Amino acid sequence: MTMTEDPTRATTAPHQERTMRITLRVWRQPDARSAGKMVSYKLNDVSPDMSFLEMLDVLNEQLIMDGEDPVAFDHDCREGICGMCGVMINGRAHGNGLHDGAVQTTTCQLHMRSFKDGDTIDVEPWRASAFPVIKDLAVDRRSFDRIIQAGGYISVPTGTAPEAHATPVPKKDADFAFDAATCIGCGACVAACPNASSMLFTAAKVTHLGLLPQGQPERNDRVVNMVAQQDAEGFGGCTNIGECSASCPKGISMETISRLNHDLLGALRAGTRPKS
Amino acid sequence: MLVVTVTTESGQRRAPKAAKTSSVFKKAVMAVSGIILVLYLIAHMIGNLKAFAGREDFNHYSEWLRTIGNPALPGATTLWIIRIVLLVAVGAHIWAAVSLWRQAKRARPHGYVTKKAVAQSYASRTMRWGGVIIAAFIIWHLLDLTFGAVNKEGHAGTPYDRVLASFQNPVVTIWYAIALILLGMHLRHGIWSATQTLGQSNRRREVTVNYAATAIATVITVGFLLTPFAVLFGLID
Ligand code: HEM
Ligand code: SF4
Ligand code: FES
Fold first, then answer.
1. How far is CA A219 from CA A151, A226, A272, B14, in A?
2. Which residues contact B102 (CB under 8 A, 6 or more apart)?
3. Which residue CA neighbors atom 7 of ligand 2 most closely?
4. Distance (Å, rounded) from C-alpha B181 to C-alpha A54?
């Protein structure tokens, strides 16, 4: 027995029905010293199932075929955990907030189904003097590494892992510390902040370690040195606007910033001063 | 987490020496001075509402301000102490604001071609220029009602006469209203921000803090606007 064919299906091939035409306006900048500009490119066969980065891969294949310089962009895991892939998409960090209803995403986890056929999409690098552009969309985020080096660690003797039950942690603290620890250091908070402040990133680290028993010995030094380092790197100051938290792929909360401030003022009162 | 080479020596900048230069310390200065100013505004607003009690009471209140603590303290000692505290608070507040403003400018010298706000409120966006307008307003306000320099009644009239002379003019009342609405927005964001800056906010309190900030800002704005509009519409004369 043959099935009756659906007449609407018969006329168009499924993949044709589903591809999109996208106009990209991408920031092109040859290196840190040169000036950059937005350049338009047209893509005709974008599948809604592609991730944003796969769509950029398609653009780059097209550019290479045409003998042009491909667009430099950072990425690594492509599964939302390494923090490498951030770009500004239509003026939003990682495209977060493109639609109503907060979707927390990294650029690699944003899919083209979030856009419509015929859309024009602006793609720019994170902009902050502490994140200089290396090329096109790739920026140098080593300033974040130096903030971590200034205090985002705990000093422990190496060797066999200690017995987990030896250091009890209240459930509430463990949960919140874990929430803060989900920060992947992507820099979206800096990119979205009108002050280009790295406060949410630093606050996530200070909160994560400050809530755990292992983080206590260095707690005062940590906050004072990390804040001094973020100032020295040339990040802006926080004015509690909240763009960071709303743009963060991990939803790091504004409470972490309050905790950082609390720890910093306490440490200053206790006489802790930044090293060097 | 990075593809670039991992040497950290090059480009490493030295941390500033004194904690005084920390952006968070400046924010704390801004928060504490802001709170002093808010407390003063509440007292000042209650005082202004004395205008509804009539000429006698209002002028008497103004006289009292100049003689608090007499005869134990000579003349206007208390008033001068208040004025000095306010001057220091305003100075510290503006110093911190300007310094953080410049830091933010340096932190992003080249803006985005396309940038969309996801969360920021109008109030949070207008803190800086709003603050400048509020400062201009405060200067004009002192010249008008304290020194009488730009007031028709001049310094010769009583405080009550100067209030009438000012606010019977609709242009003055409207300028006053604009400045106070800006101030209300400044406080709406400022009170929430100060709570964060002083490390007193958390996820549970966040909603309450924001409602409280809106409530205090509204009471202050409306409280200050009652007197000028009552004068403008002839409810007080
Ligand atoms: C009656 C006068 C004023 C009062 C009561 C007031 C109050 C406050 C308060 C409570 C804060 C919050 C502090 C914090 O963020 O932690 C604040 C922030 C601020 N104020 Fe004022 N302020 C006044 C005048 C001014 C003036 C004249 C300026 C002009 C430059 C100004 C500029 C700022 C700025 C830039 C901030 C930081 C913005 C932010 O946190 O997002 N303020 N103010
Ligand atoms: S706080 Fe959020 S936005 Fe900022 S670096 Fe961490 S994960 Fe990225
Ligand atoms: S590539 Fe790793 S988070 Fe996007």
1. 9, 11, 10, 21
2. none
3. A183
4. 49
The response to whether residue A80 sits with its C-beta less than 6 Å from ligand 3 reads yes
Residues of B in contact with A195 (CB under 8 A): 100, 103-104, 107-108
Q: State the virtual CA torsion across B30, B31, B33, B39 in degrees, nearest 10.
A: 150
Per-residue pLDDT tens over the stretch A130-170: 999 999 999 999 999 999 999 999 998 888 888 888 889 99
Q: The tokens of A266 are what? A: 């306490």
What's this model's pTM, rounded to 2 decimal places? 0.89
Q: Which helix (H) or strand (E) holds B102?
A: helix B77-107
CA distance A15 to chain B (A): 32
pLDDT tens digits, one per residue of B13-26: 444 444 456 899 99
Torsion of CA B57, B62, B65, B69, to 10 degrees: -50
Cβ separation B1–A237 shorter than 8 A:
no
The amino acid present at A213, given as its one-letter code, is P
Report which of A275, A142, A153, A133 is spatially closest to residue A205, judged by C-alpha positions: A153
d(CA B194, CA B103): 19
Q: Is the CB of A187 under 6 A from ligand 3?
A: no
Q: Which two tokens stand for residue A160?
A: 């066999």
Residue B50: DSSP 8-state? G
Q: Which residues sit opposite A123 in a β-bridge?
A: A26, A89
Counting ligands in written order, the one closest to the CA of A186 is: 2
Whole-angstrom Cα distance, residue B63 to residue B61? 5
Q: Is A276 an interface residue toward B (CB < 8 Å)?
A: yes
pLDDT category of residue A100 using cuts at 50, 70 and 90:
low
pLDDT band at A16 (very low <50, low <70, confident <90, very high): low
Query: What are the structural domains, with CATH classification, of chain A?
Result: 3-124 (3.10.20.30), 141-269 (1.10.1060.10)
Tokens of A28: 């092109």
> CA-CA distance, B65 to B81, in Å (whole number)?
12
In chain B, the domains with their CATH numbers are 23-108+120-232 (1.20.1300.10)
**Closest Cα in chain A, distance from residue B2 (Å):** 7
